[in-house]
Design brief:
The complex is a heterodimer of chains A (135) and B (651).
Chain A lengths: L6 H23 L4 E4 L11 E12 L7 E6 L6 E6 L12 E9 L2 E4 L5 E2 L16
Parallel strand pairs in A: 1-2, 4-6
Antiparallel strand pairs in A: 2-3, 2-5, 3-4, 5-6, 5-7
Chain B lengths: L1 H28 L2 H30 L6 H6 L6 H6 L5 H23 L4 H25 L23 H15 L1 H12 L6 H32 L9 H26 L3 H24 L14 H21 L16 H33 L3 E2 L2 H21 L10 H24 L6 H28 L2 H7 L1 H21 L5 E7 L4 E4 L2 E12 L3 E12 L2 E6 L2 E5 L4 E5 L1 E5 L4 E11 L4 E10 L2 H18 L3 H14 L2
Antiparallel strand pairs in B: 2-11, 3-4, 4-5, 5-6, 5-7, 7-8, 9-10, 10-11
Classes of the chains: A alpha+beta (135), B alpha+beta (651).
């Protein structure tokens, strides 16, 4: 167009660029995300991860005086890992539940960070009973 | 009975298919009677869907366990109200609710706009029909709520954390919001299909968008309040994918509500508005997909279900089809005017849109990150709270500030001098508040301090606007009733400020954990909590175990609270029952959680939180609803003005 260059465009383009730059810088430098793994992915891992899977066996301890100890198994598989955890234990926690917890593997035991244990509520949408035999 | 439900859904499916294909045919060839028939089919679909819904409702209330859905989501112990709420407690029922609400919105929107904009409505009907066809298809073929079985003696019951009054209102409100965004989308696409790129579709759907947006906003705050009082971890929002699923379309719709004003006033941003309405609708579909498909790990957990791929396919078709349509109609969407100055109302709206959409997309990035990283790196990675909180600050704080600046800047071109003069008072107020806050020790959190200083600025500028307006109009009531949209909007702005104050309060909270025997005490944020005793009460559905805890401040007992746990029989689950003591004069809550109870020794592991200003969130919610209602209230004068304007524009 013959009209003189609109300075508004430049400023708006610069604002878009600024927003994009903040986003890219933050995501590339800080927010790499935590890997979400299952027990079978764990061997060889040293960093912090989110471990998910099904609780099997009988949990011991209460998470306060003595660490809560339990075993997590792959959702579809047989690999398991023992977990030691301290902190709040969700109401829905029990054998058979799908849980996730953050921490890292130390000498074969997954040592969880405090208050990171989360259970998925089992009955909100599809009941799990049909798809997940085995418990 | 189940047969009746199934038949009604099949009839609905047929009707909405007719609305889609006959409607498209009629609109293309300009057949008036066929178009009426297609529109009537949408209305009839509302009736047949209502019949199907009544069948399911009756089965739920009568505890007819021969319906698989009823047996899976209720039990005979469940009260009537919660049996009704099981309608949306499961997947099939939720889909049926989607379809019912969609048909209701579609019927009402078509009825009200048929005469005003027949050419646009002719193309809107098939779009609405196509969306309804998708849900009717799912209900008929993939996830039927009317599957039957030999009736078991007792049902599985409803998740205890859903047995809460909030669950009666929260999900339906979210559905009103999600589904309501279909209306502006359908009218926008209808206008493009009809080759009418004027502002009528925006005028016709403004209130519908506002209704959907209000319902989504109030629904989210109710959900936050439910999480706060019921889930019992002392927070109200956890950036969970399912929570984000409701936040994203709300952000997109917020951007849309602002940018349509520029199109109405100045004829700019036409392409942008169509894209925003597509984004809002696409995100509402994506939200439903997320909550239903189990594709993302979420505490709301859904097992993998069969409808996920269908949803993904539908979203792709909607997005690709709409984008192709927008592209084909680009010549119609040329702006009539240009942005004249960077210091103008239009420009502040642009910045607001930029920030809202940027925040919306960063949330979307966070939600999709596990899927993307699995596709790229072969292992899913999740982004958690810090990621979202960073962007809430980076984009949310400037947005807050803009809320105070925007309304004071003139349209088209404002001189810097006049802007400086109008900002004098709000600026002075915010500086005074900032200094007072630093003196009071609020400097411990910089984002918190900024949020409160900006909040003061925005509130002062809103008050200034009301004062200036009242002076000009003569009376306060006249001012508001003559410009409901504008002043309702300011009230909503004030509500957002209250919500922001509530959120920023989290930065100043404190938390303590302690193991206590009866008689022992713990301290948290200036309060002393003394655990007295433990007791059980037996109710119809559960054993309620409660600890008696006295709350002291400065030596005086200010309250006695009863945190504990409920053990539900039928569902065989326990749920945490947090106790809240609200101190209104100090504007803070003391939350006491009995994290773990040892009934043998009466030892309780307590967690106590002091949450300053958290109640501003809920007050903000009420103000938000009030402001939206002002903006929504029918205004005969505005309607006449608009009709005259559009008659002029198209004569």
């Amino acid at each position: 167009m013959a009209r003189k260059r609109n300075p508004a465009r430049l400023v708006i383009a610069l604002s878009v660029a600024a927003v994009l730059a903040i986003f890219l810088l933050y995501t590339s430098l800080v927010a790499q995300g935590t890997p979400s793994l299952q027990p079978s992915d764990l061997p060889g891992r040293t960093g912090n991860v989110t471990l998910g899977g099904l609780v099997v066996g009988r949990p011991t301890g209460n998470g306060h005086d003595a660490p809560l100890r339990f075993t997590i198994r792959d959702r579809k598989g047989t690999a398991t890992v023992r977990v030691a955890y301290r902190g709040s234990v969700p109401d829905l926690f029990r054998a058979g539940r799908d849980v996730s917890v953050q921490g890292k593997l130390q000498n074969g035991v997954f040592v969880a960070e405090r208050n990171t244990l989360v259970t998925k509520c089992p009955s909100k949408y599809t009941p799990a009973k049909k798809q997940q035999p085995g418990y | 009975m189940a047969d009746l439900g199934r038949a009604a859904l099949i009839v609905t499916f047929g009707l909405v298919l007719w609305a889609t294909f006959a409607g498209a045919w009629a609109a293309r060839l300009g057949r008036r009677r066929l178009a009426d028939s297609a529109a009537n089919a949408l209305l009839a679909a509302l009736v047949s869907t209502a019949v199907a819904s009544l069948v399911l409702l009756a089965a739920l209330v009568r505890h007819d366990f021969s319906f698989t859905y009823v047996a899976d989501h209720t039990s005979t112990r469940l009260s009537r109200a919660y049996s009704v709420s099981a309608f949306w407690g499961g997947q099939e029922g939720s889909l049926l609710l989607w379809l019912l609400v969609l048909c209701a919105y579609a019927g009402a929107a078509v009825l009200l706009n048929r005469r005003r904009a027949p050419d646009v409505v002719a193309w809107t009907v098939p779009v609405l029909g196509a969306v309804a066809s998708f849900f009717a298809f799912l209900l008929v073929a993939v996830a039927s709520p009317f599957a039957t079985q030999t009736a078991p003696a007792e049902g599985a019951g409803l998740n205890p954390s859903l047995q809460n009054p909030y669950m009666l209102a929260h999900p339906p409100l979210l559905y009103l919001g999600y589904v309501g965004l279909t209306v502006p989308f359908a009218f926008g696409m209808g206008a493009l299909l009809a080759g009418r790129a004027d502002e009528r579709w925006i005028v016709a759907t403004r209130r519908w968008t506002l209704v959907a947006w209000t319902a989504l906003g109030v629904g989210q705050l109710l959900g936050a309040h439910w999480a706060y009082v019921e889930v019992g971890w002392g927070g109200f929002y956890a950036w969970d994918p399912v929570e984000n699923a409701a936040l994203m379309p709300w952000l997109a719709a917020t951007a849309f509500l602002h940018s349509v004003m520029i199109q109405e006033k100045r004829g700019m941003l036409k392409v942008w508005n169509v894209l925003l309405v597509l984004l809002a609708f696409g995100l509402s579909l994506f939200g439903t997909f997320l909550t239903r498909s189990g594709v993302v790990n979420s505490i709301h957990s859904f097992t993998q279900s069969s409808i996920g791929p269908w949803f993904l396919g539908f979203i792709c078709v909607v997005v690709a089809g709409s984008l192709a349509l927008v592209f084909a109609r680009l010549p119609l969407l040329r702006a009539k005017t240009r942005l004249e100055s960077l210091v103008s109302r239009e420009a502040t709206f642009l910045y607001n849109n930029l920030l809202l959409v940027a925040f919306c997309l960063t949330v979307l990035w966070g939600v999709a990150f596990p899927m993307l990283s699995e596709a790229v790196r072969g292992e899913p990675r999740t982004l958690a709270g810090p990621y979202y909180n960073f962007f809430l600050r980076a984009f949310g704080l400037p947005l807050l500030l803009l809320m105070g600046i925007g309304p004071l800047v003139a349209w088209r071109r404002a001189s810097l001098g006049s802007v400086g003069r109008t900002f004098l008072w709000p600026f002075a107020v915010s500086v005074a508040v900032g200094v007072a806050l630093i003196a009071a020790g609020a400097g411990s959190s910089l984002p918190g301090l900024l949020a409160y200083t900006f909040s003061a600025f925005v509130l002062a500028s809103i008050v200034l606007e009301f004062v200036r307006g009242t002076r000009a109009a003569g009376s306060f009531l006249q001012l508001v009733s003559r410009n409901r949209r504008r002043y309702g909007g300011y009230v909503v702005h004030a509500a957002i400020v209250l919500v922001a104050i509530g959120i920023a309060g989290s930065a100043y909270g404190s938390t303590r954990e302690a193991k206590l025997r009866p008689g022992e005490s713990m301290r948290v944020g200036g309060y002393t909590l003394t655990y007295r005793s433990l007791g059980d009460t037996r109710t119809a559905g559960a054993i309620e175990r409660r600890a008696r805890v006295d709350v002291y401040r400065g030596g005086d007992r200010v309250a006695t609270v009863f945190p504990g746990k409920n053990a539900y029989f039928a569902e065989q689950q326990t749920s945490n029952e947090m106790a809240i003591y609200t101190s209104w004069p100090r504007a803070e809550d003391v939350d006491v959680i009995a994290d773990q109870i040892d009934p043998a020794t009466d030892v309780v592991y307590f967690k106590a939180l002091v949450k300053p200003l958290v109640n501003f969130l809920w007050i903000g919610g009420a103000v938000f609803l009030f402001g939206s209602l002002i903006a929504l209230w029918p205004d005969a004068r505005e309607q006449r003005r608009l009709v005259a304007r559009y008659a002029l524009a198209h004569s």
